[in-house]
């Protein structure tokens, strides 16, 4: 489907955060932008499943799935189909933003539960 | 028998205000090395992401480079090095940076340790001071001397221009008396003028009391170690948690009053003592359902005892037929007991290895997951 993955990818070294900085994000869309394959290097099920879950809760999304094409390749593929008239990538951005919001909410509740004496 | 797992509430769109109201966290255990709390209103995929971050992506310091100067014990160098790597380094990883292949070791990215047995200061270690005769007297097995992680001593790292090797100046070990430290410093062969920089860098301890190897008198160990920052992703020694997991809150219902042999059977079936028998009435009760591991034994045991099933059907059976809550998923059930999971409520357990306080770990995981999302968001911003 895409040739984005293999090739120049270096094996995971001891320092993942350094790789994250130069993250490789690859976007493939169809003509009307309702279908999207997003390839993220250096990500796995941690983000994949959470992002898939959040996308199911976005209004513009019709279908969403993700896969790790090969376990030895540090790479995640997200497949999104949006409803006609909306762009799939916008839903992904929204979902990522909502995940950060959820982090903040849960963090706040956790602080409340643990840090008050 | 099991229904498919519940992964998400369907059809509910994400709305931060509603989420704010729905999310509830209640702490159930708060210790320095262990916390547990109940979360409701958050779905499993999000909690699972946090669990995975805790296990694999919260950085810690761990011994990575081991230089064996001398090892005449029976334990192989590589075996010993592996054991050393697993000893928790009790330094706050947030004070350190990652060290890339190309980086010079510095106080910002490396912690140095040294293990020398027999110790330079033998007076404090009577087991090394026996005369040969005392050790080898008699036909008994030659006593072996255990080497514990207590003997791993922090060393000041000295960065000298054009040279990446370690200094030979030993820092004061935090758990030895000052006179010990002095003697050690005198005994070492190198420079002893690191006093000014020593003040700036705090000594670091490793977890004490871990058995590394055993050796005999006459054998020697001299090992230098460098601890660097890393992720559990690459090796479990960098994982900050002994374990981090969550489970749906288990609910155990009894359908009516159970007595006699039936009650005894069910009580005895549960290995984690969920049930107890009421002293006065002699009836079975649920003592602590949170202990339940969903093994199903309390339900399964009656399959082998059909005579019990027929003779003791509860009188008020119908009253207890249905559990009240709506978010319950039945896992095991018969006419007497039902074991359920509450699908919208989780208990989360975090056990720290020691580098972090257990109660800050969850916050760290949230922050790391947050920055993961933000970084991708930034990368996508101009598309
Ligand atoms: S299912 Fe729960 S209550 Fe029943 S025996 Fe197992 S642990 Fe005990």
From TrEMBL, chain A:
Pfam families: RNA_pol_L_2. It comes from the Eukaryota. Residues 1-20 are annotated as: Disordered. The keyword Secreted does not apply. GO terms for molecular function: DNA binding; DNA-directed RNA polymerase activity; protein dimerization activity. Keywords: DNA-directed RNA polymerase, Nucleus, Transcription. Residues 36-107 form the DNA-directed RNA polymerase RBP11-like dimerisation domain. GO terms for cellular component: RNA polymerase I complex; RNA polymerase III complex. GO terms for biological process: transcription by RNA polymerase III; transcription elongation by RNA polymerase I. It is found in: Nucleus. Its main location: nucleus. InterPro entries: RBP11-like (IPR036603), RBP11-like_dimer (IPR009025), RNA_pol_Rpb11_13-16kDa_CS (IPR008193), RNAP_AC19 (IPR033898), Rpo11-like (IPR022905). PANTHER family: DNA-DIRECTED RNA POLYMERASE I,II,III (PTHR13946), DNA-DIRECTED RNA POLYMERASES I AND III SUBUNIT RPAC2 (PTHR13946:SF28). Belongs to the archaeal Rpo11/eukaryotic RPB11/RPC19 RNA polymerase subunit family. This is RNA polymerase I, III common subunit. The lineage of its organism: Eukaryota, Rhodophyta, Bangiophyceae, Cyanidiales, Cyanidiaceae.
Automatic annotation (TrEMBL), chain B:
GO terms for biological process: DNA-templated transcription. Keywords: DNA-directed RNA polymerase, Transcription. InterPro entries: DNA-dir_RNA_pol_30-40kDasu_CS, DNA-dir_RNA_pol_RpoA/D/Rpb3, RBP11-like, RNAP_Rpo3/Rpb3/RPAC1, RNAPI/III_AC40, RNApol_insert_sf, Rpo3/RPB3_RNA_Pol_subunit. Residues 165-198 are annotated as: Disordered. GO terms for molecular function: DNA binding; DNA-directed RNA polymerase activity; protein dimerization activity. The keyword Transcription applies. This is RNA polymerase I, III common subunit.
